[in-house]
Specification:
The strands form three sheets. Strands 1-11-10-7-2-3 form a six-stranded parallel β-sheet, sandwiched between helices. It has a three-stranded antiparallel β-sheet with strand order 4-9-8. It has a two-stranded antiparallel ribbon with strand order 5-6. The chain is α/β, with parallel strands linked by helices. The longest helix has 20 residues, at 12-31. The protein is built from nine helices and eleven strands. The protein has one domain (8-226): Rossmann fold, CATH 3.40.50. It starts with a strand and ends in a 5-residue tail after the last strand. Helices cover 37% and strands 19% of the residues. Strand 5 and strand 6 (142-143) form a beta hairpin.
Length: 247
Amino acid sequence: MKNYELISFTNPDELAHVAAAAWLHEIKSANDSGKPYCVALSGGRITQKFFTESVALTKNVTLEADAPSLFKNVHFFWADERCVPPTDPDSNYKLASELLFEPLEIPESQVHRMCGEISPEEAVKIAAAELSNVSVTKSNGQPVLDLILLGMGEDGHVASLFPNATSQILDATAPFLVIENSPKPPPTRLSLSFACIAAAKKVWVLASGAGKADALRESLAPSGKTPLARVLQLHPAVKIFSDIAPI
């Protein structure tokens, strides 16, 4: 039995709009609990559209909420980050800051970026400590994110978890890892672990872009070997928003 839901779209704009609307309604529902809502963001082209749609929809009167009240309990983390300063064009934090946090006036106290400009080993320790401090739920020792938003690369990678990962990466129990010798520059990155992704309440994948059909098809196969396939095998309910065809 499939442990994922595949939602198909004809173009990235439609994908981003529907995913953003679904996310904002998740946030509205979570606000009723009054507890912190922890989400991990990713980078990539489709994420830019997702952030833009999220801002536009937040400012739409049909949501009946202004940005500060809607996002009052949301704490932002990252699925991965490049080991670069936060002002670097390659920084996933910079992308979110410019397209999401600044337009919505998100307080800095709710933003827990991974510090790509310091020692990678120290950066993952800080990221793990901050997530553990904010997350109200633990699963097998893992801090539990309410939602992880992932992209998917042409090789089926998610976060900065790439194909042919070592057993040290595959079996790691720490929430965040240092990834070295990334096949895509820059070579050193910070990433959520498979264990932390598996412990999340919800995982959504925004799979968009030409040249990714083979990777998505392999990932959805029961015997798939891509990093996304591993996520699908580890997590009981992944939602995939995709404009990739054919599948």
